[in-house]
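[audit] Reproducing an earlier prediction to check determinism. Same input, same settings, fresh worker. If the tokens differ from the archived copy the diff job will pick it up downstream; this log only records the rerun itself.
[audit] input (198 residues):
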Amino acid sequence: MAIDLWAARLERPLTEQETAIMLFMMPPERRERLMRLPEEKRREPLCAYMILCLALRQKYGWKAIPEIQRSGRGKPYFPGHPDVHFNISHTSGAVLVGLSDQPIGVDIERLRPVTQRTMRRLAGAITEEAFYQSWVRREARAKREGTAIATMMRSESPLQYGEYYYELDTFPGYVAGVSTRCKELPGEVRKYSLDEML
């Protein structure tokens, strides 16, 4: 029931060659969706799939990302590998990937300004870090279950029996976490720079 985690810090724009390599490695359905995004919004999702590919190679020896489908609730999964669960998250300048043998949800967010009103209304928080800790916890839990984003907007419910949430140490200026039903603590996050992951 191990949880393995990979994160990358994206310190610079991608070159055209790097973009082409990453696009080639993406599953076709994800590539088509990505190409509909404006060019300036492509770096993080491209790198998230690159890190997923790296994680699958390190953990299972796979050479490529297998076919990805979505459950009725929208949660991505590998239909050919039902015992391999994954989740990806990206935010400005960073990506996070989790692998496990059971459903998992991960989230990473860059700390950025939030109004006091928004912090109080959405999280009952008075600091930006507390706001993002609440946000990441909610999003990771929703992603593990495959529930709608609207579920996160409600006040945060306590962890249910058999549900675990762990805050992760990734990069300065970021908050990250993983939601699981695995009691075992996740291993240390493998951290990469953009140059190291290529």
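[audit] rerun output stored. Observation attached for the diff report: The longest helix spans residues 43-60.
[audit] end
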